[in-house]
TrEMBL record:
Signal peptide: none annotated. Residues 2-356 form the FAD dependent oxidoreductase domain. Keywords: Oxidoreductase. GO terms for cellular component: cytoplasm. This is FAD dependent oxidoreductase. One of its GO terms (molecular function) is oxidoreductase activity. It comes from Octadecabacter arcticus 238. It holds the Pfam family DAO.
Length: 376
């Protein structure tokens, strides 16, 4: 409910390029000063954010970007197949939907300005078909004249309702004999360096293995075992337009506002923006206003009966890669820090951790995700 519940629902297997592209040094100050930009800052938190921000910006180089992309590819580029495999043969198959995915630009020139990122995507096999001019509205009638270029990727997918999808997965798990306990973790205890039991507000649970995969709150859980992880929140927002008068044929990304659009069974969800700040602080009004303003610009004829608003936290590491693996020989495994791709990478992350717990060696290089790179 606090993590993937309100995200865009995209299986973003094309989202291999990190925020820390080489142009970030030039763009970030401009974004922070522009009221129409999708980047916001909780300035009261800025002093505490500085150490993380310095490490984050150190990766805004071509070499670091390409290294991150190379590590993202095996983790997410088969995400649609991974989700389908997870639910195959169950009554959950309907939650995973095939679709195209389009990046919507103001013009072909704006697409061309994204050449660096598209070059990275091409290296992973994602090469778009361009639609320009009046053909844009033929392809996606919901779009107004503000969008004059679509970069369309075939063979993609999305989740039609992320919150309900996770709920149904939990129901299936319990139906098959699993036990789901919702509790507040108060401490993790070790004996001779290995996990022995977890203390919660609903009692103590003995275990020989534990997996910490709680999104941004993993940072708080790691503190309980004396480890400080450089994890910060990229706070994201969504607006759901209820009973929309029209919906796009396929999910899309509005490039100018850096937000995703996904037609869901609960309405039209517009999700995105980045607000750097504390994960214990409440929502801000400006990101929601920005989403509404951009939506009105690109969907000029859209009407709806009401809206729902939400804020969530993307757990971000300085190098934009998650922590997946065992902490030494403690029996404690990590599976967090996926930044913008938590839902996308969920099934693959679960498979990798399960393989490690079973004593099997995953068939991909796990060193880029090793938790030891941040916790010693």
């Amino acid at each position: 409910m606090g993590a993937s519940y309100g995200n865009a629902g995209l299986l973003a297997q094309w989202a291999i390029a990190p925020v820390t592209s080489p142009s970030l040094w030039r763009e970030a100050p401009k974004y922070l000063l522009d009221p129409n930009s999708p980047l916001f800052m909780k300035w009261s938190y800025f002093p505490r954010l500085l150490p993380w921000l310095g490490k984050f910006l150190s990766h805004a180089t071509d070499a670091a970007t390409r290294r991150i992309v190379a590590s993202q590819i095996p983790l997410i580029c088969d995400a649609v197949d991974q989700h389908k495999s997870l639910v195959r043969g169950t009554d959950l198959e309907g939650w995973v939907s095939d679709s195209k995915f389009s990046y919507a630009y103001k013009s072909k020139a704006h697409f061309d300005a994204d050449a660096y990122t598209w070059g990275l995507k091409k290296s992973a096999g994602f090469e778009p078909t361009l639609v320009t001019g009046g053909a844009v509205q033929e392809c996606e009638p919901i779009l107004g004249p503000a969008v004059q270029c679509l970069a369309v990727l075939e063979g993609q997918g999305h989740i039609v309702n992320p919150g309900q999808y996770i709920t149904e997965l939990t129901k299936y798990f319990t139906k098959k004999g699993g036990k789901f306990i919702q509790a507040e973790v108060r401490d993790l205890h070790k004996i001779d360096g290995r996990i022995s039991h977890i203390e919660t507000d609903k009692g103590s649970f003995e275990c020989s293995r534990a997996v910490i995969t709680a999104g941004i709150w993993s940072k708080d859980l790691m503190k309980k075992i004396g480890l400080k992880v450089p994890l910060e929140a990229e706070r994201g927002y969504h607006v759901i337009f209820e009973n929309p008068s029209e919906i796009p044929r396929n999910p899309m990304m509005i490039a100018a506002g850096k937000f995703a659009v996904n037609p869901m069974d609960i309405g039209l969800r517009c999700a995105g923006t980045v607000e750097l700040g504390d994960h214990h602080a409440g929502p801000s009004a400006a990101p929601i206003k920005l989403l509404m303003r951009h939506a009105k610009e690109v969907f000029p004829n859209l009407t709806y009966s009401g809206t729902q608003e939400w804020m969530g936290f993307r757990p971000s590491t300085p190098d934009s890669l998650p922590l997946i693996g065992e902490l030494g020989n403690s029996g404690i495994y990590t599976g967090f820090g996926h930044q913008h791709i938590g839902l996308t990478a969920g099934p693959k992350t679960g498979r990798l951790i399960a393989q490690m717990i079973d004593g099997n060696t995953p068939n991909i290089d796990m060193s880029p995700y090793a938790p030891e790179r941040y916790v010693v």
